[in-house]
Specification:
By secondary structure, this protein is an alpha/beta fold. The chain is built from 7 helices and 6 strands. Strands 1, 2, 3, 4, 5 and 6 form a 6-stranded parallel β-sheet that branches.
């Protein structure tokens, strides 16, 4: 069975990213063709990029980088779940991506952003990154409108209004990873 990682792209205290990733994970579990896991960058815990070699060489000096590389290589595709911060994506997300290079190439990816206006600017910025890494951007990329002031219950209700979009994403991964 093919495997897809749902990467939680924020480590901020009181973050909404984990709630969004968990909701999405629950929606995607309906697949009997693709296995989905949540990978939390707070648990991966990579410091700011400290490898002496350029990532495309694959020559990693640190065990944590080799572990991250092995984890990323074990997946056939990715969903990056991240908020919009100051019209862009979180630094922790970019840092985790920048540790590696070849490990991302050719794999399908979906961008799931959220914010007061859905995170559209963060998604635009991240499209440049995934394109440069030669990832295959999928057609379904959710932009979820959530307010930072929403309670957990209100955010949960708003997330469920995107259940149909999550089903489309699941179907697209099933087609892409046959």
């Amino acid at each position: 069975m093919k495997k897809v990682a749902i990467i939680v792209g924020s480590v901020r205290p009181n973050r909404r990213s984990k709630q969004v990733a968990d909701w999405l994970h629950t929606q995607l579990l309906a697949s009997d063709q693709v296995h989905f896991d949540v990978v939390d960058l707070a648990k991966v815990n990579l410091p700011m990029l400290d490898e002496p070699q350029l990532p495309f060489t694959g020559l990693y000096a640190h065990a944590k980088t080799r572990q991250w590389s092995k984890l990323v290589q074990s997946y056939d595709g990715f969903v990056f779940v991240f908020p919009q911060y100051n019209w862009g994506y979180p630094a922790v997300m970019k840092n985790a991506i920048d540790y590696l290079a070849k490990e991302w190439a050719g794999k399908p990816v979906s961008l799931v952003t959220f914010g007061g206006h859905g995170g559209s600017q963060a998604q635009i910025a991240m499209r440049m990154v995934v394109g440069g890494l030669k990832m295959k951007l999928m057609a379904v990329n959710l932009q979820i409108s959530l307010s930072p002031n929403d309670s957990l219950a209100v955010a949960d209700r708003r997330l469920h209004s995107y259940d149909g979009d999550a089903a489309l994403l699941r179907a697209e991964f099933e087609r892409q990873l046959k």
